[in-house]
Amino acid sequence: MLALRPNCECCDIDLPPDSRDALICSFECTFCTDCANGILGGFCPNCGGELVRRPIRPAQKLINNPPSTVRVLKAEGCAPFIAA
Questions:
Q1: Do 42 and 50 touch, CB atoms closer than 8 A?
Q2: Per the confidence metrics, is the pTM higher than 0.85?
């Protein structure tokens, strides 16, 4: 089950569970659309994977399956993704 992390790892903007502005990679690294489409060029700076829109969990399912409250933030900020 997706963790639904609460923030962008680059800019720390809040990304609530119903946000259509949250993008994730296959490891669930989470970024906002501005960072993902801007500096990151659509790729995760951690694994190099494609960033896709995170699905929205229906509100009634959040009761028994709450989103994560653990904020992940890259202290050094995000650098542009460079393919190897």
A1: yes
A2: yes
